# Entry
Amino acid sequence: MLKKYLIVFLISMVPLVELRGAIPYAVGFSLPIVPSVIIAVIGNMLPVPFIYLFGRKILEWGKDLPGIGGFFRWCLEKGEKAGRKLESKAGAGLYVALLLFVGIPLPGTGAWSGTLAASLLDMDFRKSVIYVLLGVLLAGAIMLAASLGVFGAISLFG
# Structure
C-alpha cells in the first residue's frame, strides 16, 4: 500500500500529468480516497514554490544553450503568451482566472503552467500559491468525481 501511495505522490509531481493522473490511478487501484487525494495535493503543490521562484530564472539562463535552448525559449514564449492572454481577459480577476486555469483539468493547464505564468506576470507570490492551491483542490474534486463515474451517473438522469 505504501508503494502505491508513493506512486500517487510521484505521479502528482510530474508536469502535465499532475494530480489529474494521480487521482485516477488511486481510484483505479482502489486506494482509500481521502489519503490518496491528500497525498496527490501535497505532491502537486510541492514543486509550486520552486517553479515560482526559480522557473523563470532557469528558463532565462538556458534559453541560449545549445541543444536545449529551443525548448527553454518555447517554454518562455508559451508561458508569456498564456500569461498575457490570461491577464488581458481577466483584468481585476487575475487571481480567480489563475484558480480556474489551474482547476479546470484541460491539457496544458495545471499547477506547473499556472505557477510559471504567475511568475512570468510578476504576480504576488503568496496570493499566487494560495490560488494555485485552490485550483489544485478544484481539479482534484473534478478528477475524483470523474474517476468515480459521477458525471456518467448524472447523465443518466438528464
